[in-house]
Every structure is written in structure tokens, then in C-alpha cells.
């Protein structure tokens, strides 16, 4: 059970209170998921919101997560994500890492003694149990990250309580997180944590893993529209 601000109101079932605060950045829809524009056509914005909803919903269902803070400057995803239990804060509109740092500052205000993680909003196949595995691994290091499926970017970056939160997302962020001293986490069995969706072929891979209900619904609508193409 959760309280109105998205916190668990009882123990996680693992014998301890859930303790991670997860920060999820969500871009303004007009600029979101541009690499899916030709594929999604008029459904691009709905798809971006749906993918973020599945990501946040799975993170909130993870027993190790106490709360999810969404950072966005767009009222549409803000409303949809607040409705499923996220705590939404305003985007300072100074880029992705500035947005994440704003969320990280809110996390420290809400839970000063807890670990903080940044999770990309484009993980529609995310499984709560797989996120648990990544969080358990991350807890062993001051700073840690999970590379994306392509091993170029990053899907998760997290810090232990008291360690400065220094996300270095954007483009080839795997190398930047390594350069910043974060431990790379690649345990087996977490494909859903690594499966970010940027391109039509990423979306097919996520569908093969099994996406959440929000993305599934939009994809069904897309497939019913003319113009749907399965990527080669
Ligand atoms: N709040 C916030 N989130 C951002 C910003 N830039 C990127 N993001 C988020 O960061 C993640 C990675 O973003 P990108 O890959 O740059 O953008 P995208 O919308 O997923 O895809 P493309 O438009 O195809 O690049 C997604 O979760 C975005 O919503 C920003 O300036 N503010
Ligand atoms: C922002 C990133 O990735 P992408 O643009 O692939 O979503 C990243 O991996 O840091």
C-alpha cells in the first residue's frame, strides 16, 4: 500500500522498508521520442507518455523503491504520472542532467538518509524484480550505473546515501559514467532494465520482452492505423 505522495506505508516484504528514491526525467512531449517520429506518426506523444507510465509504474511496484520523483516541464506527462503515484517536480529547463539533479535535490529533501537513483523514462518492459536486482548490486558501491542494451548509453545511475549525485546522461554516457568513477553493473537476468527504446527496432525488442499495459495499448492503436511498418 502507498500513501498519497507515493510512499509505501508498510514494510516491503523483504524485512526492511523500501528505501530508494528513483528520479525519472521526462522530456517535454513536443521534443520527445523524435527517433520514433516516422514510425509512430500521430501516436508519438501518446507513445512517449505510455512508455514513461510503464517505466514509472514498474519502478513503483519494485519492493526496494520508496518513491518515484518525475522531473518534467510538461503538464500532460506530469498529470498522467502523478495519477499513477509519482511525485512530480518542475524541470529547471537546463538539460537532462540539470533535470536529474533537481530531482536528486528533491530526493534528499524528502529522504535525507536514502539512496538515490536516476532511471531513464524509456524502459517500457521494465520488471520490478529486475530493477530490484540492479538496486541490490548498486547498494554495494558509492556510485554505480547500468549500461543500456547497446552498451553506449546508461539506463540507471545511483548513489549511496551521502554520496554526491552526479548523473552524466546523454549520448555516450556509459563512458562518462565510467570516467566519473561509477561502477558498471551488468548482472545477468536484467534485460528489462537495459532495454531502452529509442528506435523502431528497440521498440520491437521491448515488445519481444513484454511491455507494460500502457505501451501495449498505444502499440495496438498504432498497428490498427495505416502506416504501421515492422522495422526491418
Ligand atoms: N526532464 C527532462 N528529461 C529529459 C530531458 N532531456 C531528455 N530527457 C529524458 O531523458 C531520457 C533520454 O532522453 P533522450 O534519449 O535524449 O530523448 P528521447 O525523447 O527519449 O528520444 P529522442 O527524441 O529520440 O532523442 C528520456 O527519459 C527523456 O524523457 C530534459 O531536458 N528534461
Ligand atoms: C540519454 C541517454 O540515452 P538515449 O539518448 O539513448 O536515450 C543516455 O544513455 O545517457
From TrEMBL:
One example GO MF annotation: phospholactate guanylyltransferase activity
UniProt keyword terms in alphabetical order: GTP-binding, Nucleotide-binding, Nucleotidyltransferase, Transferase
Domain of life: Bacteria
Entry's Gene Ontology BP terms: F420-0 metabolic process
Similarity field: Belongs to the CofC family.
Function statement: Guanylyltransferase that catalyzes the activation of phosphoenolpyruvate (PEP) as enolpyruvoyl-2-diphospho-5'-guanosine, via the condensation of PEP with GTP. It is involved in the biosynthesis of coenzyme F420, a hydride carrier cofactor.
Stated name of the protein: Phosphoenolpyruvate guanylyltransferase
Name of the gene this protein is made from: cofC
Amino acid at each position: 500500500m502507498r500513501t498519497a505522495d507515493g510512499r509505501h506505508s508498510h514494510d516491503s516484504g523483504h524485512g526492511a522498508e523500501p528505501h530508494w528514491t528513483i528520479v525519472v526525467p521526462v522530456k517535454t512531449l513536443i521534443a520527445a521520442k523524435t527517433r520514433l517520429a516516422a514510425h509512430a506518426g500521430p501516436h508519438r506523444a501518446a507513445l512517449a507518455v505510455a512508455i514513461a507510465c510503464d517505466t514509472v509504474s514498474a519502478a513503483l511496484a519494485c519492493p526496494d523503491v520508496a518513491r518515484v520523483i518525475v522531473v518534467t516541464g510538461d503538464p500532460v506527462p506530469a498529470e498522467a504520472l502523478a495519477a499513477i503515484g509519482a511525485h512530480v517536480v518542475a524541470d529547471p529547463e537546463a538539460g537532462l542532467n540539470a533535470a536529474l539533479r533537481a530531482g536528486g535535490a528533491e530526493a534528499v529533501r524528502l529522504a535525507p538518509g536514502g539512496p538515490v537513483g536516476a532511471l531513464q523514462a524509456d524502459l517500457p518492459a521494465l520488471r520490478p524484480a529486475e530493477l530490484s536486482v540492479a538496486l541490490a548490486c548498486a547498494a554495494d558501491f558509492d556510485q554505480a550505473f547500468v549500461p543500456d542494451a547497446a552498451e553506449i548509453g546508461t539506463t540507471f545511475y545511483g548513489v549511496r546515501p551521502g554520496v554526491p549525485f552526479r548523473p552524466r546522461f546523454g549520448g555516450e554516457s556509459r563512458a562518462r559514467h565510467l570516467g566519473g568513477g561509477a561502477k558498471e553493473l551488468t548482472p545477468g537476468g536484467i534485460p528489462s532494465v537495459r532495454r531502452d527504446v529509442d528506435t523502431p527496432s528497440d521498440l520491437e525488442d521491448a515488445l519481444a520482452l513484454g511491455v507494460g499495459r500502457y505501451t501495449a495499448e498505444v502499440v495496438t492503436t498504432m498497428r490498427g492505423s495505416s502506416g504501421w511498418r515492422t522495422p526491418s
